[in-house]
Amino acid sequence: MPIEDRGDAYLITHAMAKDTLSRLRDVETEQVGFRKGLVKLGRLCGYEIIDGRMETEYVAIETPLEETMGERVKGLEDVVIINVLRAATPFVEGLLKAFPRARQGVISASRDEHAGRDDSGRFPITVDYVKLPEIRPEDTVIVADPMLATGSTMCAVLEHVIETAPDPEHLIVLSAVSAPDGLLRVGEEFPEVDLLTVAIDDYLDDDGYIVPGLGDAGDRAFRTT
Ligand code: URA
Number of structural domains, the chain? Predict the structure, then answer.
């Protein structure tokens, strides 16, 4: 089964997704390998979403030899991908290979790491920029962020998305690595969301990093510190 129900989330279990994530986790994977790995993982996840969440329909096709029936994926035009800046950028590049006609939105949201976590373990979130396309009821909306840690950023992002699109056909949050706390929080605050991830890791450290995780995905992809 390509997408497995794990209670708090659905796990993408494709062998190449697991292989690619293991390379991303490796501290020896340098910037170019890391960025390419995120692109590859985005593409693989995109195909798994098509396989596990979208329908196909039979269509008549004329081959060079005769008429036959073929199967086509329905609704590939009705996809919106939301890039949560900045670590999602290479991940979204990969998703676009699976959904080349997707409309795209961008949300810049980041946690204030200097302020630290509050008593409930949450970081204050600043949302600097929101640009969303029209989102229609028939759309599959994929909100992409490779790391779902405390869930603070994702909850802030989802508030904006739901304000624009109260009831799309599918509302998917896609991450590469998730922490149990983040999944729980997003699941509780947004029960309508379909949470898809490649791995559910063990815990968050005091700085809000996922352990074992893969470090800071943005820094590793963009070679910043
Ligand atoms: N963001 C990251 O890039 N890594 C983490 O572990 C948590 C949030």
Answer: 1
